[in-house]
Amino acid sequence: MYRILFALALILHFPFEVCAQETSFYQDVAFINNISMGLPQGNIEQISIISNIPIATTSSGQYEWKNSKWILSNNNNSSKVLPQYKGIPQEAGKVLSTTNYRNITYVGCENGLFFKIGNNKWKQELPSDSNYSWALKEVAALTVDTKNRLWFGAKQGMGYLENGKWTLFTGKEGVPYNHFTCAAPGPKGEVWFGTEIGAFRVEENVFYYRANRRWLPDNHVNAIAVDTDGTAWIATKNGIAQIVSKEMTYPEKAAYFTKQVEERHNRMGFICQNQLTERFNINTSELAISDNDGQYTAMYGAAQAFRYAITKDLEARELANRSFYALKWLVDITHEPGFPARVIIPVDWHEPVNEQYSREYNSRHQKNDPFWKDIFPRFPLSEDGNYRWKCDTSSDELAGHYFYYGIYHDLIAETKEEKDAVKQVVADVTDHLIKHGFKLVDYDGKPTRWGSFDPDYFNSIWGWDQRGLNAMMMLSFLNVASHVTGDPKYDEVAEMLREKENYDIYAMHAKEFFPPENAVPWDNNLGLMSLYGLINYEKNPERQIMYRIALENAWLHISKQKNAFWDGLYGAMAGFFTQKVDEGFFKPQELFTENPLFAKASIDRYYKSSLDNRYMTETLQRIPLDLIGYDMDNTHRLDIQLDPTPGQATDMGWGNDTFALPIDERGHVRLDRDAFVLHDNEGNGYAEHEGTFYLLPYYLATYHKLIEP
Asked: Which of 51, 169, 296, 527 has its CA 20 to 30 A from that of 503?
């Protein structure tokens, strides 16, 4: 019930009118039809379209779709029963499917595909093309599309016959699964196939897999029917999925997600995910807290800042300002200037937050995690007694804060009050780090678990693997501070770290990618968000070249993740470098004089970005409008390759094109996750995620002219 109400609200909210100057695309939305919509509980045996009205057949009768409800029908249309055919060879086995193509009857059998050649005479069809030649088995799907092509689905794969020529597909060509149950044509040449684990649509030889609870009430598909609008009605063992493809534009999708964030993900100006007290029901959402309210609020603020820079929309400016002052509040509320809290909640928050992190809990937790910090209370009381703030702040928080501080300063801060506020908070946080020897120091006088940016930590057994990332982040923080405040002391501190402690050398390898446990995906967020400030505000041409090399090194390890945010950050920063080359910023003969050829060779090599924005646009267009976290399992798919890396988890892999699966087929929608995880679960239906993960990459990419809006 609730997912269809969600989808209906979407359709009503947008007229889906497409402006000629805007890019349009088709957005799939799933409506789940079950007992709440009038259907009987359980198996839907058959679905058909009669006079463009869907008719569902169940063991308790037939139901027809009227006024967005299923009602018991007086129709007595019998459920689909395959005709009896004479003359089919006995060895063909049971008839599983049938269709008529060019006035010829075709039947799919357990042991072959056959077509009628005369009175009770049949001939076996043996499809072949340049890659395959098949004697088919288990031909459970047959249909003819509107382009007059015959399609089949069988154990070997699937294919179509056009003008006497076969084109065949296996998992290598994109077939997700091959235990077929049915097939149905759509009005524009697309074809839907049902299987025992999900359904998929084929358009222009591209496959769109629709499985798991995001798309279907049950993975076992019994039948599919497609109406004249192209809506697919998919009958399963536990209800019906109605999958609609609606034409929309990027700005329409952005407006939808801004509304979603404001209605269900705004807690006192902080952006957060929510929890659903009833599974899959967004009407039961409750705002949650996390470790990273600061980072997620910064990302939303940055999205709105880019939006304002593009559109001059005053709503965007207001939201960007609100996000900045929420981040500033995180800094102002704590025990000393410059220490940012993770979270702020009212003192009467409904969860017993400190009781969850008792001394006993900390002691038990340290047995499995020796680096867990034993600090109590984890949520100290604010000075005015009205709020609690969460301590043990990490590098994640700092990356978000500084990323947004620079963007806010450049794109939003216009009044003296706004400019003074951002200068003050940047100076406070940076001075805290410098004062404490490049550490975040908590109210207990000790560093936070993930807040060490100092040389001693980098040279220890505990911090060696973090030194590239954290050294680069510290230099980025100092670059942002220098740019925002104009105070030269931050340049002097950065110079000391470079000359005495080699921070710029460490920064050239800002991320560890092996062993697998060191390749955590959220570090890519930290790295790229920090590189954005580092490269954007770097004034020295030699260091610009060094950081451009660091950017490419990071990018090569994540370029196939189909992550629109990472793609956008890389494209923007590569664009900074290209622009500086074009402006004559670099004088190769004057740079790296100990090796006169290095600068020119590097400039030539890295002048051109290696971004292919097709994958960024694919992800932006296919981020689902439904951001509930579902359990999504792709480990059974035929169109994947498992990751062979030693020590890697067994559920890691990618598509046959070596890129990650499309985002609407994966188990996560957040763009700080590993897209190569094949079985993922973000809340298992009890959480909805925030639309920032569309808004930020969209507005970032548009601002930097990486996509056509």
From this structure: 296
pLDDT on residue 76? 64
Q: Would the CA dihedral through 595, 599, 602, 604 be positive or negative?
A: negative
How many other C-beta atoms lie within 10 A of the C-beta of residue 670? 18
Convert 598-664 into a string of H (helix), E (strand) and C (coil).
HHHHHHHHHCCCCCCHHHHHHHHHHCCCCCECCEEECCCCCCEEECCCCCCCCCEEEECCCCCCCHH
Q: How far apart are CA 81 and CA 143, in angstroms?
A: 16
Q: What is the mean pLDDT of residues 428-451?
A: 97
Question: What rounded mean pLDDT belongs to the chain?
Answer: 94
Q: Give pLDDT, residue 4.
A: 39
Spatial neighbors of 368 by CB under 8 A, at least 6 apart, are none
- pLDDT band, very low/low/confident/very high, at 99 (cuts 50, 70, 90): very high
Q: Residue 198 corresponds to which tokens in the numbers above? A: 């999900």
Q: Contact 279/686 with Cβ under 8 angstroms?
A: yes
* 125-139 tens-digit pLDDT: 999 999 999 999 999
Measured CA distances, 373 to 330, 364, 446, 456 (Å): 20, 11, 10, 19
Alpha-carbon distance of 542 to 534, in angstroms, equals 13
Written out in words, the top-level CATH class of the domain with range 90-237 is: mainly beta
Indicate left, alpha or beta for 516 from its phi (over 0: left) and psi (-120 to 50: alpha): alpha
Reported pTM? 0.95
The one-letter code for the residue type at 411 is L
Phi, psi angles (nearest 5°) of residue 450: -110, 35
Tell me the C-alpha distance between 143 and 549, whole Å.
53
**Cβ distance 434 to 493 under 8 Å?**
yes
Query: pLDDT of 143-172, one tens digit each?
Result: 999 999 999 999 999 999 999 999 999 999
Instruction: Give the long-range contacts of residues 20-23, CB within 8 A, separation 24 or more.
Output: 22/249, 22/250, 22/251, 22/709, 23/249, 23/250, 23/707, 23/708, 23/709
- What token pair was written down for 530? 């920090």
Report domain extents, the chain. 90-237
The neighbouring-strand residues paired with 327 are none
Are the C-beta atoms of 218 and 38 separated by less than 8 Å?
Answer: no
Taking every pair of Cα atoms in the chain, the longest distance, rounded to a whole number of angstroms, is 94
